[in-house]
């Protein structure tokens, strides 16, 4: 097997790069020494894709992009770079051209939709007292408290930003569905997963925060994708 690719992890709404903490540890234990996690502004899809592209461009070799939640829209938009060899979607949006996370969500509104609230500056927050039940019901109360207090709210307008030319149409992709997800309806995940024709599809009985509650299984899928791509 040739050298392992650099894995670039892309977070979603209501969190930052540290949401990947457990996956980072798991992948490091599997021998991945080139791990990066983008910290995005969550101000627009264009801004977030540009930040991701800049990090990808700094990597000397092949890159496997992994997106959670809205991060799936970002890797779909930014994954057309020549050194990106594959995409992994973790309970994530995988929009087609002209689609937005908000538009996709309208087909099957998520269970926790009512627990989102905008502030006077246009940022959309998950209500602090509802964060555990909405985002990460399978984590401990302490873990949920930290996630709630440190949440990174997106500009609400970002929900309407559309993908231009989705990279999953040209790059090998993998997908993990969270069957107990209250932030992206599982039916929407199934639709998007089927459409991208993933090399492998797994379903976990997990909340939206599968990257934290099922870090071992999520990391195993990423590892499998990296190993398969390294053979090519």
UniProtKB/TrEMBL annotation:
Ranges of residues in domain AB hydrolase-1: 7-220
InterPro entries, alphabetized: AB_hydrolase_1, AB_hydrolase_fold, Sec-Metab_Biosynth_Hydrolase
SUPFAM superfamilies assigned: alpha/beta-Hydrolases
Keywords recorded for this protein, A-Z: Hydrolase
The keyword DNA-binding belongs to this UniProt entry's keyword annotation: no
Superkingdom of this protein's organism: Bacteria
Gene Ontology terms, MF aspect: hydrolase activity
Pfam families for the chain: Abhydrolase_6
PANTHER family, per database record: AB HYDROLASE-1 DOMAIN-CONTAINING PROTEIN-RELATED, ESTERASE_LIPASE_THIOESTERASE DOMAIN-CONTAINING PROTEIN
Name of protein: Alpha/beta hydrolase
Organism: Acidovorax bellezanensis
